[in-house]
């Protein structure tokens, strides 16, 4: 029974069991280029067109150096006579963004060749694997919105808290125009910088607006107070963050930005644990938000929504390597019950930012339709 359960675990996680053969990978194409997230002038890490990643780190006095790419594993590096350690992933990585760090003789270090991003409840090195559809979040010659930091007073936490606000192109010039607002939450281990830095939310919006695919709106991103319970998810209490968001941040945004303040023009969405927060808050405060988005963050049922103000939109998404059947069944059940529900499944991705970038791309055009 123990061996059976172990085999099931490895099957579901996509990891090979020791002693089990894997399908032969195609020959590695030698078209490696520096990752788009490298420090200026740094050649490594490198990625190729197939999604392999190659690393090179100087650590002349180390005994072991390993790359930790989280759920996708990572290679042990080999030491050369020049004191540099080199190695490559055993298989291609999923498309898009990945956190990683170096394990050097048991210590945890960032790669000096890569930029750092807040994830795993610390600043981690970042790696970008080329994606076949990366054009939708590329930096283009189009009008750009602004992402600005705000500090808002929070009596409940007795401090000023931080949020980042995306305003669309033309916001500063069209001084009489008011905009809908999406409150967009990060996942556990991340913070209010994640959607702009890792998620490219502002570039996704700029490109969609330039293509005429969406009605421009404001995005507000704040810290979800999630990392205090890392490793103790059952201890998480939504009430403190709900107070910060609903009673403190929303009034501040409405007072300092040109917003449409009715329920129909306010949405909430989040990835992973931010999706869990979205679900709980929208069910607790359905009079505040008109549209909901759970990105790898669970589902709603018709029973959850019964007796509450009907949402304009329910958007549920995940990666194809997560739980697409559950997402699609939930949407089918919601539609059958008369709710406006939409599903999105990101092909060939798991619980990672390429899934959520694609989710935002598909969610944005559906929001705030008349």
UniProtKB/TrEMBL annotation:
One Pfam assignment: Esterase
Keyword line: Hydrolase, Signal
A molecular function GO annotation: hydrolase activity
UniProt signal peptide: 1-23
Coiled coil region boundaries: none
Source taxon at top rank: Bacteria
CDD domains, per database record: E_set_Esterase_N
Protein name in UniProt: Alpha/beta hydrolase-fold protein
């Amino acid at each position: 029974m123990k061996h059976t359960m172990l085999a099931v675990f490895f099957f579901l996680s996509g990891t090979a069991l020791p002693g089990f053969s894997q399908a032969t990978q195609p020959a590695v194409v030698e078209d490696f280029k520096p990752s788009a997230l490298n420090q200026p002038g740094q050649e490594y890490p490198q990625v190729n067109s197939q999604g392999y990643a190659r690393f090179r780190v100087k650590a002349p006095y180390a005994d072991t150096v390993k790359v930790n790419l989280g759920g996708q594993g990572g290679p042990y590096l080999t030491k050369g006579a020049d004191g540099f350690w080199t190695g490559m992933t055993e298989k291609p990585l999923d498309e898009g963004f990945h956190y990683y760090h170096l394990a050097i003789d048991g210590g945890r270090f960032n790669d000096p060749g890569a930029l750092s991003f807040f994830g795993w409840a610390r600043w981690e090195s970042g790696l970008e694997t080329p994606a076949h559809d990366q054009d939708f979040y590329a930096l283009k010659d189009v009008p750009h919105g602004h992402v600005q930091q705000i500090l808002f007073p929070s009596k409940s936490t007795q401090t000023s808290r931080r949020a980042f606000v995306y305003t669309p192109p033309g916001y500063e010039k069209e001084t009489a125009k008011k905009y809908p607002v999406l409150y967009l939450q990060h996942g556990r281990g991340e913070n209010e910088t994640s959607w702009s830095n890792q998620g490219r939310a502002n570039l996704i919006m700029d490109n969609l607006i330039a293509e005429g695919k969406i009605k421009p709106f404001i995005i507000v991103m704040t810290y979800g107070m999630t990392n205090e319970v890392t490793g103790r998810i059952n201890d998480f209490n939504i009430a403190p963050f709900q107070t910060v968001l609903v009673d403190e941040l929303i009034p501040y945004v409405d007072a300092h930005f040109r917003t449409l303040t009715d329920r129909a023009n306010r949405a909430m969405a989040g990835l992973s644990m931010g999706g869990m927060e979205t679900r709980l808050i929208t069910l607790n405060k359905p009079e505040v938000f008109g549209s909901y988005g759970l990105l790898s963050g669970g589902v709603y049922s018709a029973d959850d929504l019964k007796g509450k103000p009907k949402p304009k939109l329910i958007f549920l998404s995940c990666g194809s390597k997560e739980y697409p059947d559950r997402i699609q069944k939930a949407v089918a059940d919601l539609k059958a019950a008369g709710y406006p529900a939409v599903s999105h499944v990101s092909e060939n991705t798991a619980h990672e930012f390429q899934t959520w970038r694609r989710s935002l791309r598909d969610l944005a055009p559906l929001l705030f339709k008349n």
